[in-house]
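User: Assemble these into one structure.

Assistant: Restating your components, then the assembled model:
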Amino acid sequence: MAERRFPSFHEIAPPPGGEGWAAMYPYYLVPDAETRQPEDGRLWFADTMHWSRGCYPLGSVVAEAAYLGAGQNSTRIFALPSSLGLDLRVQHGYVYIAPVPVTDPDEIARRAEHFQTRAGYYYQHWDELYDRWKAKVGAVVDDMRQVSFPPLPELEPMEVVTEARGRSTGWDVIAAYRRLIDDLFLVWQHHFEFLNLGYGGYIAFFQFCKQAFPEIGEQRIARMVAGIDVLAFRPDDELRDLAALAVELGVDRGFDEALVADAPQKVFDALGGTEEGRRWLAAYDAAKDPWFHYFAEYGFGHDQDTWIGNPAIPLAGIAGYAERLRAGQDIRRPVARLRAERDEIVAEHRALLTPDEAAQFDELLALARRVFPYIEEHNIHVEHWAHAVLWRKLWELGDFLVAAGFARERDDLFFLNRFELEAVLHDVVQSWAIGVPPRGAGRWAAEVGRRRGIVAALRAAPPQPAYGLPPDEVTDPFAIMNYGITTERVEAWLGGTGGGDDAAVSGIGGSPGVAQGTVRLLRDERELGDVRPGEILVCPITAPSWGPALSTVAGVITDIGGMMSHAAIVCREYGLPAVVGTGFATVRLRTGDEVRLDGTTGEVTVLRAAVPGPGAGSAPAA
Amino acid sequence: MTVFTRALDDPACADPAEAGGKAAGLAGLARAGLPVSAGFVVTVPAHRAFVAARGTVPAAVADAVRQSYERLGGGKDVAVAVRSSGTTEDGTTASLAGRFDTWLDVTGAEAVLDHVRRCWTGTARSPGTGMGVVVQRMVRARAAGVMFTVSPVTGDRSRIVVEAGWGLGLAVVGGEITPDRWTVDKVGLTVVERVAGDKRIEYRRGHLAVAVTGARRERLCLSDDEVLELAALGKRVEREEGRAQDVEFAFGDDGLVLLQRRPETVWSNRARPPRFAAGQGVTAWIGAAVTAGPTQQSPGGLT
């Protein structure tokens, strides 16, 4: 029997037009002949949960920052006994990660002792340390906001002289860029300061429940732990409140669908013409900072919209809620009911336990609930707030490069990696300092042009789900829970790479219920406007901020994600059947297919395939 | 004065020494307001009088049985089920299901007396066992079966498993058919799994089996609503008794009735150590939980 493995990074050619992609990224992020042996010996899976459409050369810095934070917290700070974080590669523009395990039992035991002391300290002081965490991260984000890239002046301002600064604002551009990148790395170290400890508390409770109730569903366990009033739901709650206020003030008819989509500013202008409209606008302005510094998708790329950057997104959500209010629906999240249900579920399970079990259940549930808010809330601080600032500042740097006469387009810089960009800034500032043309403007203009073609070719092709050699059994609790990478998933992927059966799609039941409908395949959140009520959304990954769209679809199928992925959490919150972690749904299903999904078993059944179109999987509905 | 028969809802029936284990279980159900078929118990003292009379039924016992039977039918001869109710059965240590006798569709006072005698002279006795006899109106079951308030397969206490077939419960209890099976979430009271069986025969009355033909063989014999109504009662019985139960039931003309209950004995007597070693503290538990190992149970990895 042939060895069961995925292709090697080194065996697969890039899609046509993507040749030369590797040179765009820092050398240590791409597979290399010198490290082929260890690369081929591990399982690498596509992190489409965060980079569903790949990452640009500059965007790869976020992957670096994220997995540095994960690695050093797991390995060097808290000493997780058997998990050394995640190794990182970029292949054909997509991010791949590989869990690095400790397998020597003695080493695991040594690390467990350190974990006991180190993690124990955090669990013991959790609330106090979490409060400090919020302040620390808030300070880093504030520091990022201070960064600016003003145009290079002909002469330095007079203050440089009168305050005897002795340093130029031109130099500050380079320093500001470094500060922005430093802050990004810092905020990701903080991200993982708590994350794995939080997951650990949840996993312990999970395992307790699985032993006490062998048939218990993961969704049930998650519901016992879940917070009801957590920060993650706040942006969507703001939309609901603004819709209610609009209906109350009688200004809700102003959110005409076409106008919202094409010219949101006109909606605001029209509202500004009446007293009621101005009252509503004041409420909108109060809500938008900070709550609309919120990515429509995930915040891992420069090309993603925030609600505040593209008000058409929140306005469409508000319009949808207002319509439901006019139809007599109650759009408030049933917080009291959700809480009462959660408490009853907990009480009933507890009543079935022996006294010894009940004592352990109480301790673990209390801990899981103490740590779980971090898991649910941290995205707001890091992925939304910090990244919103990061990309905004980088766009400003793009404008700076255009103003300096170096770049042609404001997005040119995203085609350079972070080291190349720093070199460019030195070139720009050095040449400005002495009044000569920069050395590299022409060279980089040609290179960016070439790279635009490469990136477009890479992004047009979907990623391979995995590379390398899978373990006999996937045992890393973090990979399993957060990414949905289980032994069964890997087996399904291995079966799938044979290229034979193109109808089979199955994944993890992420949110219970059965749904049937027409597939709407989305690879980009900008297509969210195409979604029609009752359709089945098929996408690499959903984002929590898709709330308004999720309130109209009948079900969700994603390529990646486990029970605790944000997609599964938010679908459960919306009562939406979901199958997550299918690996192939976006490749195997096409818009127009009739499917049924079972959010409990994870099965997806194609009832009727769409009439095959010429395109690669996104033919319009018949 | 010795009482030879008692109505099922007579509080004295709660004592297995007076009425036998099966009767005590049924009496508990009746007392808790759960639906049981009307009936009476021929008491353990009546059995002792029978033994003392060297195997003849004393006249006082026979009169008591005749009177109770007449009262049960309101003067008419009704069909009843006659079942033994031994003092050593239905204990919490072992399921003795099937070790004792059941006769269905017995009609007429003399026939009932005859079957009471059979219970007392049956072969499945251990010496010294007191033997009550339960006499209940027959349930004309459309479908019937057995419910466990714990998963018999995994021991999961948050599951109720129902097995049922067409007609009387005999075919299910006797293993003569592959029954339909439902798994119910005890906490949320929802059906989480339904598996249609192959119900090749059914008992409509007495011990006479008839073939089930056509689509009915594989069509589920209970609706989800019926299964959930049953499971809700199972949950109540378990709470009343303080432990998992094994319950026989039937859906008849008057809806759901419970025919008998016993404590579940396999899983209920098994030790239930918690996942983690007591006394180590939560950090050590978490350390163990996040340490990958070949036997690790992890989120997402199980179905």
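Confidence is low (pLDDT under 50) at residues 497-502, 613-622 of chain A.
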